[in-house]
């Protein structure tokens, strides 16, 4: 495994022109990656300021930020209500003399939905968990097995201890829901949101039914939808929408849900599908953040229940579709059905085994390790 994350060089290049905002889920490695740009690379470096540390908060509020350093890192600064004006002022006055990295989770993307006073001053990148290609440019079945078991977050993956993994999972969910979520929205029913987070792993891979969760939680469907949106903003889960076409009588509203930590999903089939979804989302975000294309991850499903798990769109045009299977079986008949009716250039059926046959134009059955190496490359 390489010692640098996949965004390191790209961030280094971007810092020569603008600030870098680095978002992503809690404990994905944002701070560790950012510290590599400091010398010494330590949280004790005075150029690293974390809003969650009272001493650093005092430095920020008293306007005692050390501007003599070549790089400044502001971690979790989005929890400060006036953070945008603060960062804008720092950049406008000091950008010629220092490089600035701002890290955080939800609000770094959340504020972009409103007026963005920082427009033109930063590049935004989303850091994802480890993927197969990031771990090994020639990934093996052993790599896949390890990643499927422990997930892609650095600490549990590198520790590779089952007991520590379970403890880490519980602590992460508690911190996301119990701490971070309260900073984002005024949600009073935190215990019910925690219960929702416990339910969601069992919903992975199937069309999301708010009605069934309404019965479990005894709250309205709009409330559940708003909680899922909040958890998505905290990088706990993400949803994808159907790719519609009148030619196939596509479903239009039902979403599918996946977790950023696929290792929370118990059954192997949905867990592998979640891992594939996460790799595809990482691919989409990487292309979008580095090349500027509008990327989307969707799925195919018609009213008769025929489905292909994923479709990747580039500037609203589908570029390939992906079906996930745990075994290297024959090509799904659903791929042939949609291939005859939709203008999607390539179809892949990825799996956890060794067989490789067929052609992308009509449907290629391919090991997921090879798909990551040859197609995704991120």
Q: Please give the count of helices.
A: 15
Largest sheet: 8 strands, mixed
Report the end-to-end length measured between terminal Cα atoms.
14 Å
Provide the helix percentage.
40-55%
The average pLDDT is 94
Order of helices and strands: HEHEHEHEHEHHHHHHHEEHEEEHEEEH
Radius of gyration: 21 Å
Strand order of the largest sheet: 7-6-8-9-10-11-13-12
Taken together, the total number of domains comes to 2
Q: What is the SS-derived class?
A: alpha/beta
Describe what this molecule looks like in 3D.
The chain has 378 residues and is α/β, with parallel strands linked by helices. The protein has 2 domains: 8-126, Rossmann fold; 132-376, no CATH class. The chain contains 15 helices and 13 strands. The mean pLDDT is 94.
List keywords for this structure.
about 20% strand; alpha/beta; five-stranded parallel beta sheet; about 375 residues; about 40% helix; 2 domains; Rossmann fold
């Amino acid at each position: 495994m390489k010692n640098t994350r996949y965004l390191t060089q790209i961030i280094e290049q971007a810092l020569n022109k603008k600030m870098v905002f680095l978002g992503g889920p809690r404990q994905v490695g944002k701070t560790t990656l950012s510290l590599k740009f400091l010398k010494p690379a330590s949280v004790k470096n005075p150029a690293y300021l974390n809003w969650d540390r009272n001493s650093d908060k005092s430095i920020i509020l008293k306007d005692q930020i050390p501007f003599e350093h070549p790089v400044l890192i502001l971690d979790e600064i989005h929890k400060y209500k006036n953070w945008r004006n603060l960062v804008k002022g720092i950049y406008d006055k000091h950008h010629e003399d220092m490089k600035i990295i701002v890290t955080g989770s939800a609000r770094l993307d959340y504020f972009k939905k409103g007026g963005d006073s920082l427009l033109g001053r930063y590049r935004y990148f989303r850091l994802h968990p480890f993927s197969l290609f990031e771990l090994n440019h020639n990934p093996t079945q052993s790599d896949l097995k390890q990643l499927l078991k422990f997930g892609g977050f650095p600490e549990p993956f590198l520790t590779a201890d089952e007991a520590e993994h379970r403890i880490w999972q519980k602590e992460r969910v508690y911190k996301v829901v119990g701490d971070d979520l309260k900073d984002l929205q005024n949600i009073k029913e935190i215990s019910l949101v925690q219960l929702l987070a416990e339910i969601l792993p069992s919903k992975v891979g199937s069309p999301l039914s708010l009605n069934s969760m309404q019965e479990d939680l005894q709250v309205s469907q709009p409330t559940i939808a708003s909680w899922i949106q909040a958890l998505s903003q905290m990088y706990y889960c993400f949803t994808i929408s159907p790719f519609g076409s009148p030619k196939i009588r596509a479903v239009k509203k039902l979403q599918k849900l996946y977790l950023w930590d696929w290792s929370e999903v118990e059954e192997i089939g949905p867990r592998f599908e979640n891992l594939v979804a996460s790799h595809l989302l990482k691919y989409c975000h990487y292309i979008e953040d580095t090349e500027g294309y509008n990327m989307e991850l969707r799925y195919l499903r018609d009213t008769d229940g025929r489905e292909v798990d994923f479709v990747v769109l580039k500037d609203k045009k589908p570029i390939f579709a992906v079906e996930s299977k745990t075994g290297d079986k024959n090509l799904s008949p659903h791929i042939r059905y949609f291939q005859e009716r939709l203008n999607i250039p390539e179809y892949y059926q990825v799996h956890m085994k060794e067989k490789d046959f067929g052609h992308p134009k009509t449907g290629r059955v391919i090991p997921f390790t090879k798909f990551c190496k040859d197609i995704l490359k991120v």
